[in-house]
Amino acid sequence: MLKPYIVEKGVMRFVGRSAKMGGTKPTGEDIGSLFQNRSEIFEKVPNPVDDKFYGITINFCNSSKDSRQDYWLCKEVTCFWSGGETGKIERLKTDMETLVLPATRWLYIPTRYDDPFVRSLSPEEFKGDPSYLTPYVYGWGCLWLKENGYERQDYPIELEIYGLQDGYEKDNGGPGADLTLAIPLV
Questions:
Q1: Can you give the pTM of this predicted structure?
Q2: Which of 46, 64, 110, 127 has the largest count of CB atoms under 10 Å?
């Protein structure tokens, strides 16, 4: 069973690369190639906070054919300053990008794709494919927020946090979460 919890985070800064999908002008790599190149991407990240990495989805949706979604594969960084020296911007490699998320509270949902409850959230044909399970877990999280008296923040952002390894009992030698999904809340 999923065991969500709420975390308050200050401003978060990220460095990585993105894929822009949908709309009339998709650009950059696709999500699969971002993950294939993650070692190359992460070795170019200055000032990383830790070993965790993030998949960040930003939905630029409207009712037109120009609706778009950006997906970032990145690491959180302590600052954008070179050597921590205020005012001296870090020069990034040409293909790297920065992203800043505002301070907010997040609903963290530790997720394992072999969890029978997680698999039960999706239609039968998608139960074995994590890329299809993820949206169903986000949907469950939005329902959890509403049922527990919370309101989703209107930021069009969702996080996948890789390497957090929380939320599942490790006492019996089992692994932690495959990833932790996060939804912004008011």
A1: 0.85
A2: 110
Q: What is the pLDDT of residues 138-170, one digit of tens each?
A: 999 999 999 999 999 888 889 999 988 776 665
DSSP label of 55: E
The radius of gyration of the chain from alpha carbons, rounded to an integer in Å, stands at 17
Identity at 43, one-letter amino acid code: E
Cβ atoms within 10 Å of 19's Cβ, excluding its own: 18
Could you give the CA distance from residue 19 to residue 23 in angstroms, rounded to a whole number?
12
* 11-33 pLDDT, tens digit each: 999 999 988 776 555 555 678 88
Strand 157-162 to 97-101 pairing: unpaired
CATH of the domain at 52: 3.20.80.10
In 67-178 the beta strands, taken as DSSP E runs, fall at 68-77, 97-101, 104-111, 157-162
- What is the distance between the alpha carbons of residues 153 and 3, in angstroms, rounded to a whole number? 20
